[in-house]
Amino acid sequence: MFIIKYKKIFLSVSLALVLLSISSLFVYKLPLGIDFKGGALTEITYTDVRPNVEVINQALSNNQSLGTVLVQPEGDKNIIVRTKDLNESERQVLISALNSTGTFTINNYTSIGPSVGKELKNKMILAIIFVSIIIILFIAYAFRNVSRPVKSWKYGVIAVITLLHDIIIPVGVFAILSRIYHAEVDTLFVVALLTVIGLSVSDTIVVFDRIRENLKNKRYVTFAETVGNSLEQVYTRSINTSMTVIIVLVALSIFGPSTTKVFALMMTAGMFFGTYSSIFLASPMLVLAEELQNRKK
């Protein structure tokens, strides 16, 4: 019952984390990758030892026609060079500059136009909105027989609020990580967000389902007691389940390839705060909704 007793503290912590994440977005911003803003991606493998990234950056910075260039190490001998969309002459300038750093072979060259990037960005936003609406409708239907003391549709709205909490915080974490690892928003970023949504809502529904079961059986006198005791019955299972996934993600971020490092770190943050929100945010908000409803009567 301590979670419900100190619900205002936990709600304040969540609000503070969300505000900090939004602040980090304003300070660091989200660097869009070529998937969204268009551009070119060149992947090369050095024949001998790969030079330091600083050496490569120095060679490329001498060519103003290339614009902003981002060099990302990959494996032992590979690098990925992200640039604006290049015409043939600019591409030759890039290759010539890279030739001064060592012998290499070009593995892949990808060019994405800005119109394709805009379409992907719109689809990402629509996907998140669509998923949120479906979640509200599904939970409202699943909890249709539990309309007292909190109406079933409020369970859905609270679930979506917790989802926004679980999305905003990892995105804020990503904004900070992007400055450290020079990561950019790409399709893997979208996959991470949608995965966090799916895992978070499933955890929240487990908690809500136990509340629904206890409400039907009328095991406790007040709604706050029902929610508090329901949490005590499931939070250990919820934490243990999330911890097994987090351990795997931490291992992936440490031992996995650099291309999935930021993805794994973002997923770790999403799993952690998703579990936190299911226990310390969603359920207290149900009690708060019930209290506000009683005040209006």
UniProtKB/TrEMBL annotation:
<comment type="similarity">
    <text>Belongs to the SecD/SecF family. SecF subfamily.</text>
</comment>
<feature type="transmembrane region" description="Helical">
    <location>
        <begin position="262"/>
        <end position="289"/>
    </location>
</feature>
<dbReference type="InterPro" id="IPR005665">
    <property type="entry name" value="SecF_bac"/>
</dbReference>
<dbReference type="InterPro" id="IPR048634">
    <property type="entry name" value="SecD_SecF_C"/>
</dbReference>
<keyword id="KW-0997">Cell inner membrane</keyword>
<dbReference type="InterPro" id="IPR022646">
    <property type="entry name" value="SecD/SecF_CS"/>
</dbReference>
<protein>
    <recommendedName>
        <fullName>Protein-export membrane protein SecF</fullName>
    </recommendedName>
</protein>
<comment type="function">
    <text>Part of the Sec protein translocase complex. Interacts with the SecYEG preprotein conducting channel. SecDF uses the proton motive force (PMF) to complete protein translocation after the ATP-dependent function of SecA.</text>
</comment>
<feature type="domain" description="SSD">
    <location>
        <begin position="124"/>
        <end position="288"/>
    </location>
</feature>
<dbReference type="InterPro" id="IPR022645">
    <property type="entry name" value="SecD/SecF_bac"/>
</dbReference>
<dbReference type="GO" id="GO:0015450">
    <property type="term" value="F:protein-transporting ATPase activity"/>
</dbReference>
<feature type="transmembrane region" description="Helical">
    <location>
        <begin position="239"/>
        <end position="256"/>
    </location>
</feature>
<feature type="transmembrane region" description="Helical">
    <location>
        <begin position="124"/>
        <end position="143"/>
    </location>
</feature>
<dbReference type="GO" id="GO:0006605">
    <property type="term" value="P:protein targeting"/>
</dbReference>
<dbReference type="Pfam" id="PF07549">
    <property type="entry name" value="Sec_GG"/>
</dbReference>
<keyword id="KW-0813">Transport</keyword>
<keyword id="KW-0472">Membrane</keyword>
<comment type="subunit">
    <text>Forms a complex with SecD. Part of the essential Sec protein translocation apparatus which comprises SecA, SecYEG and auxiliary proteins SecDF. Other proteins may also be involved.</text>
</comment>
<keyword id="KW-1133">Transmembrane helix</keyword>
<dbReference type="GO" id="GO:0005886">
    <property type="term" value="C:plasma membrane"/>
</dbReference>
<dbReference type="GO" id="GO:0065002">
    <property type="term" value="P:intracellular protein transmembrane transport"/>
</dbReference>
<feature type="transmembrane region" description="Helical">
    <location>
        <begin position="155"/>
        <end position="181"/>
    </location>
</feature>
<feature type="transmembrane region" description="Helical">
    <location>
        <begin position="187"/>
        <end position="208"/>
    </location>
</feature>
<dbReference type="GO" id="GO:0043952">
    <property type="term" value="P:protein transport by the Sec complex"/>
</dbReference>
<keyword id="KW-0812">Transmembrane</keyword>
<dbReference type="Pfam" id="PF02355">
    <property type="entry name" value="SecD_SecF_C"/>
</dbReference>
<keyword id="KW-0811">Translocation</keyword>
<keyword id="KW-1003">Cell membrane</keyword>
<dbReference type="InterPro" id="IPR022813">
    <property type="entry name" value="SecD/SecF_arch_bac"/>
</dbReference>
<keyword id="KW-0653">Protein transport</keyword>
<dbReference type="InterPro" id="IPR000731">
    <property type="entry name" value="SSD"/>
</dbReference>
